[in-house]
């Protein structure tokens, strides 16, 4: 790594400590810059790298900052949210209802993760209170050290950025929204997909399989399955029975999610993903309690501090918050009756993404036991069956058969009749129970299932 001085631009996004906008800039890979009081035109650049006059700052944006330059987004003096590189020249957006007050833009690629980084290696110990200005580091090594970038060379850093570009649409969605619920028909591989997404997030897009993660990366992923008897004491904190010299007493202990969040706080520059399987089966308001507030993406971090129910029993750490580096994935089945009672306040805090059977057929290819030569027939049978389900009165796509049911094929020696009689037919009978033409409908579904030919997959 070179030891020459490194020039870095400080560009303020939204003003001091506007963390919500910083997160948006990081996720969208765009710097949002204001100066809306100034007309957009070509301003003369006089070469000044730390101008105070607004027109000269805009001129610096237009003519002084180049593609490939480093840029950091400041929080407060000598603290920054992330480090990035400029990837496209300055441009002005005339019409953008979502961020109209920040029409001046740069496209960027983040180099560091998102966090609160103290700039201990910066040569200047005070910077000007301006939107844009130049900063100087003694070396590239010093710059990367401040942002905990561990690459040995800049080329490795670029490779990491390429990995991030290849992240799935689901990975990008959760980075942007923090809370994601995968919903769909049973067997569509929502839990499987949640694990894939979590693997992507903790590895910064470099890995998709749990098996490929290091032990440290695996420790950044948490998992729990909700059920009707699950409650606040399991999830956040509560009194637990303990034995002390033969005497039974109670001790305040952290629940699984609170422990997970504490670990994330200790590692602020790593991403942590917590998966809640069948999230709708638990009594959400009872489990989360006051964390309804903290789970909101707009109140992550210390802004979302809450006093927990057992705080009066603690001498320290009476307040709790969900760190900014914690992401939550929930899964739910659309036909589960408990979906109808899912708390509306919680719905507002999650992004909902429907997972269809066609989206996750790739699980067959990723399964070492599934014969690749058998995939086309499995795909055709499943597609035909699900089209017939959609065409059946009283049913719809929520009742589709997911590809995970077909993972049983290797264990039954690809006997499709056995898969039908022992696994699919009982489920479909439950779906059709009470309909006036139950037998005829089941026969039509079986005929579709036995059709190995291709069909229109748009249904």
Automatic annotation (TrEMBL):
Superkingdom classification of source: Bacteria
Presence of the UniProt keyword Magnesium in the record: no
Keyword Nuclease tagged: yes
Stored Gene3D superfamilies: P-loop containing nucleotide triphosphate hydrolases
UniProt GO molecular function: ATP binding; ATP hydrolysis activity; endonuclease activity
CDD domains per UniProt: AAA
PANTHER family reported in the protein's UniProt record: 5-METHYLCYTOSINE-SPECIFIC RESTRICTION ENZYME B, TYPE IV METHYL-DIRECTED RESTRICTION ENZYME ECOKMCRB SUBUNIT
Annotated protein name in UniProt: Endonuclease
Organism, as annotated: Streptococcus intermedius
